[in-house]
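#struct-pred
JK: can someone run the complex with FE2/S2 (inorganic) cluster? inputs below
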Amino acid sequence: MYVCICKGITDSQVQQAIDCGANYKDLRRNLGVATDCGQCGSFCKNMVSKAKQTCAFVEVIAA
Ligand code: FES
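RT: done, structure tokens with the ligand placed:
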């Protein structure tokens, strides 16, 4: 699904970047999300937050 209509970026592209360690700033700089109308910004921030929560959960289980 398209996350950023302005730049034609999909949720898969955003997720792949996050999986490679990208934060919100990286997403803006490298994919161009939230750099035009800004409507996709909150969605992308939520994706980054969810990934961080998942990582923290995995770290707790692994400890
Ligand atoms: S929808 Fe992403 S900048 Fe407009």
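RT: quick notes.
The chain is about 60% helix and 10% strand.
Strands lie at 2-4, 9-10.
JK: thanks, will look after standup
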